[in-house]
Amino acid sequence: MTKALRGGDAGKSAAARQRETDTYREFDAISRAVIDEGFGIVAASTDRLGQQLDQMKRSNTAGDARPRRAAHEPPGLNVCQSGEQMRVRRRVR
Fold it and tell me: Looking at the record's lineage, which domain of life comes first (predicted)?
């Protein structure tokens, strides 16, 4: 563009200006597409993270609902409650 302006030819200046405008439009379109794609990737990652956090919350809630080990039980035993029946299982080492 600068070279065309220095030459003083109106036709060359107009052609250089048009190339500059076209190049900028192409760059702008590509940049916007890349930014939109990046936002889409971040949004999908955020959704997956939200699902994982919800699953962790459900797991923690279910873990809080299970019976806790009684203070008088030996440390090698794990007590689980299934309906009305109590079972004692040896912990696998």
Answer: Bacteria
